[in-house]
Write a structure and sequence with these properties.
441 residues; alpha/beta; three-stranded antiparallel β-sheet; 13% strand
Length: 441
C-alpha cells in the first residue's frame, strides 16, 4: 500500500471564498461593514430554518439584531456571560471534559469555575463525553449564574434535561440589581426575565447540528439561552478566525437592545461603528463603557458568506466519511461517536474513537505509529483538571474519574472535506493495521 500524507484538519477554501475576499479588499470595506452584517443575517436565517439559501435582504428587519459576528468563539462566550451579568462572586458550571475556552471565558469575567465530571463512557447512545446531569444538579448553589453546555464533536447534548434541572433549582437563583450602568441595567433585566441559571451553550463544534427539544426539532443557536460558535480554521465552517454569539428571545426585552450591547462590548464601548459613521454628519460618537475589541472584519465575513453557500454539501461529505469510519470501527470493535439518531443530527465535526483495554502509553504509541504511516490524528481532549492553569486553581483529575477514563484511550481520526475516498480508505487500513499490531493480532 503506497504511503499517503493525511493532514488532520486543513481548511476547505475554494475559489468562491478567494474571489469574495478579493472583492472585499477592493471594496474599501475591510473592517466591520456590510459583509459582516449580511453574514449575521444569513446565520440568523440558517439557525432558525436550517437553510442557507434564505433571501435575507427581502426582509432585513426580520433577520437583523439576532446574531453578532465576532473575532473568536472565546470572545463570543465571554460576551454571552457578560451580557447575562456574570461577574466576581458568581459560579459557572463547566464540564471537566472540554477545551479551555469553555472555562476561561467565565474566569475572564471574574467568576469561579466549578467543574463537573462526565457520564461514565459518555452518553449511552451517542457516546459523546456528556456532562453527568446528576452531578450537575448537585453542583448548583445560590452562587451559580450559568451552566456551560458543550456540544463536543458536533453532537448536541441534552438541553431538555439541562433546562429541567435549571428550572428545579429556580428558587436558588437571585437576580442581580441594576448598578445603573447601561450593561448592568440590561443584565439585571435579563436575569429577572429569565429567573434562573442561564444555559450558555458552547457550540464551537456544532453549527448546523440539531436536536428535538420539547417535541420540536431546533438547530444549535436556538436551543440555549445564549450560544457561541467558532469559525476557526479547523472548524466545519470557517472565517479563518472568528465566531458568533446568538440568543433565544427573552420576554420583555427587545432583541435590538441586546444586539446593541454586544456591539458596544465588542468595539471599545463606542456607540457607532465605522459603517454608521459614514452617514453624512455622523462623525461624532460616545464611549459608553471602557470595553473590548473583538469585532469581525469584512475580510473574514467574505470567507464566511461563501462558506455558508457551500455548507450543506460540506456537511453531507462529512457524513459520508463518517459512514466509512463507522464500518471499520464496528469491525474492529472500537467504540466511536454516533453522529445521528432519531432525535439528533450532528454537525459531524469530530470523529472520536476509544480503543478498549489500552492505557495512555499504548494510545500514544498508536498515534505515533499512524503518524509514521502519514496519518495525522489528535486527542479531543485532555480534561481541563489535568492542565497546569486549572491544577493551580485547585482542581485534581482524581476527582473526575470518568473524564480521565474517557481520555486515556481516545484518538480523534482526521475528518474533513479535503479527504478523498482513497484517503479515507487509507486511514481505515492504517488504523486496522496499527491496532492489530498493538494488540498482537
Amino acid at each position: 500500500m503506497e504511503k499517503r500524507i493525511i493532514k488532520f484538519s486543513p481548511p476547505d477554501i475554494s475559489e468562491l471564498e478567494i474571489k469574495e475576499v478579493a472583492e472585499a479588499l477592493s471594496s474599501g470595506w475591510i473592517t466591520t461593514g456590510p459583509r459582516t452584517k449580511l453574514l449575521e443575517r444569513r446565520l440568523a436565517a440558517y439557525i432558525e430554518t436550517g437553510k442557507t439559501d434564505i433571501e435575507t435582504e427581502v426582509d432585513v428587519e426580520r433577520w437583523s439584531n439576532r446574531v453578532v459576528c465576532l473575532n473568536s468563539a472565546t470572545a463570543a462566550e465571554e460576551l454571552n456571560l457578560r451580557i447575562f451579568g456574570v461577574g466576581p462572586g458568581d459560579e459557572v458550571i463547566v464540564p471537566a471534559y472540554t477545551y479551555t475556552a469553555s472555562a476561561s471565558a467565565a474566569i475572564h469575567c471574574g467568576a469561579a469555575v466549578k467543574f463537573v465530571d462526565i457520564q461514565k463512557d459518555g452518553d449511552c447512545v451517542t457516546h459523546m463525553p456528556e456532562m453527568d446531569y446528576d452531578a450537575l444538579e448537585k453542583a448548583i448553589t445560590e452562587k451559580t449564574k450559568a451552566i456551560v453546555t458543550v456540544d463536543l464533536g458536533g453532537i448536541v447534548c441534552d438541553y431538555e434535561k439541562v433546562f429541567e434541572i435549571a428550572d428545579r433549582k429556580r428558587a436558588l437563583f437571585k437576580p442581580i440589581e441594576s448598578d445603573t450602568t447601561p450593561l448592568g441595567e440590561l443584565s439585571s433585566r435579563i436575569q429577572n426575565a429569565i429567573g434562573r441559571v442561564a444555559i450558555v451553550a458552547d457550540c464551537a463544534h456544532s453549527l448546523g447540528a440539531s436536536r428535538v427539544l420539547k417535541g420540536e426539532r431546533k438547530f444549535c443557536g436556538a436551543l440555549a439561552d445564549f450560544t457561541s460558535f467558532s469559525f476557526h480554521a479547523v472548524k466545519n465552517f470557517t472565517t479563518a478566525e472568528g465566531g458568533a454569539s446568538t440568543w433565544i428571545p427573552i420576554g420583555g426585552i427587545d432583541n435590538t437592545d441586546i444586539y446593541k450591547m454586544y456591539q458596544l462590548l465588542s468595539l471599545h464601548g463606542q456607540n457607532k461603528d465605522a459603517l454608521a459613521k459614514t452617514k453624512v454628519g455622523a462623525w461624532e460618537y460616545d464611549i459608553i463603557g471602557p470595553w473590548y475589541k473583538c469585532n469581525m472584519t469584512d475580510i473574514m465575513a467574505a470567507i464566511g458568506l461563501r462558506q455558508l453557500d457551500r455548507y450543506p454539501s460540506l456537511l453531507l461529505r462529512r457524513a459520508e466519511i463518517i459512514k466509512k469510519y463507522d464500518k471499520i470501527c464496528d469491525e474492529l470493535v472500537i467504540k466511536h461517536l454516533l453522529h445521528k439518531t432519531n432525535y439528533m443530527d450532528s454537525s459531524n465535526h469530530l470523529y472520536l474513537i476509544r480503543i478498549p483495554d489500552i492505557d495512555v502509553e499504548t494510545r500514544n504509541a498508536i498515534i505515533e505509529k499512524m503518524a509514521e504511516q502519514g496519518v495525522s490524528t489528535n486527542v479531543h481532549y485532555k480534561p481541563l483538571p489535568m492542565m497546569t492553569a486549572y491544577k493551580q486553581c485547585g482542581w485534581d483529575i482524581k476527582d473526575f474519574p470518568n473524564a480521565y477514563d474517557y481520555y486515556k484511550n481516545l484518538i480523534t481520526l482526521p475528518l474533513h472535506t479535503l479527504l478523498t475516498d482513497e484517503d479515507v480508505e487509507y486511514v481505515c487500513e492504517i488504523l486496522k493495521e496499527v491496532v492489530g499490531e498493538i494488540k498482537g493480532c
